[in-house]
Design brief:
Blueprint: E1 19-22, E2 35-47, E3 54-66
Parallel strand pairs: 1-3
Antiparallel strand pairs: 2-3
Length: 67
């Protein structure tokens, strides 16, 4: 991608990325370790007020368990 989709509103959003906002801090897991994640799916433009992170699709109030 030529432009960072997390930094610039209006850029094409990748179809294989989902921002996840968890209820608690996530323990580090290997990138290939399966996880079962549940939460509330939100759609639409959003800019995280703390980080400035932009997203069009996100899972909020998420919890996870190792799969």
């Amino acid at each position: 991608m030529a432009v960072c989709p997390f930094c610039e509103p209006g850029t094409p959003w990748p179809d294989d990325i989902l921002a996840v906002y968890t209820k608690r801090i996530v323990n580090v897991l290997p990138f290939n370790a399966p996880m079962l994640t549940t939460g509330v799916l939100e759609l639409g433009d959003y800019v995280d007020p703390e980080l400035g992170f932009y997203s069009k699709v996100r899972l909020v109030d998420a919890t996870y368990a190792r799969g």
